[in-house]
Amino acid sequence: MPEIADLAPDFTLPRDGGGEVVLSGLRPAPIVLFFYPKDDTSGCTKEAIAFTGLNAEFEAAGARVFGISKDTVAKHDKFRDKHDLGIPLLSDAEGDVCEQYGVWKEKSMYGKKYMGIERTTVLIDGDGKIVRIWPKVKVPGHAEEVLEAVRAL
């Protein structure tokens, strides 16, 4: 996993609704990347809705917010439409970006081990450097905490 003050690993990923997002092409805007396990699951839905609800405030602070999972663009489109999400959702179907950011981890549920995305948020400043990492995110209040960190940049 990259660390604070490291240059954020660059990527190009397809997004919901078509097109691609190139991380380095977004500078000098601060960027929030929230990595989440799966579209349309309870925690992931709550997190995406929370970031959507604060999107205007993130934009007012000059920041852009993106959700990233291994779901396909088609699944992202359905997820976005079902919950009226306003945050771009990026598809890392191959998992390369999840690997680069260190969020693809061994997890455990009911004693069974499996690989999956650990809910993590990364804040990148206008120079492309990582300024904050939230590992093992708990959803309630998280989007608000990230917004405060963006405002403090």
TrEMBL record:
Catalytic reaction list: a hydroperoxide + [thioredoxin]-dithiol = an alcohol + [thioredoxin]-disulfide + H2O
Enzyme Commission number, as recorded: 1.11.1.24
Q: Which family does it belong to?
A: Belongs to the peroxiredoxin family. BCP/PrxQ subfamily.
Keywords attached to this entry: Antioxidant, Disulfide bond, Oxidoreductase, Peroxidase, Redox-active center
Q: Which Pfam families match?
A: AhpC-TSA
Protein name per Swiss-Prot or TrEMBL:
thioredoxin-dependent peroxiredoxin
- Organism this protein belongs to: Roseovarius phycicola
Please list the residue ranges annotated as the Thioredoxin domain. 2-153
Q: Does the keyword Disulfide bond apply?
A: yes
- What exactly does this protein do? Thiol-specific peroxidase that catalyzes the reduction of hydrogen peroxide and organic hydroperoxides to water and alcohols, respectively. Plays a role in cell protection against oxidative stress by detoxifying peroxides and as sensor of hydrogen peroxide-mediated signaling events.
| Oligomer and partners | Monomer.
| Highest rank taxon of the organism | Bacteria
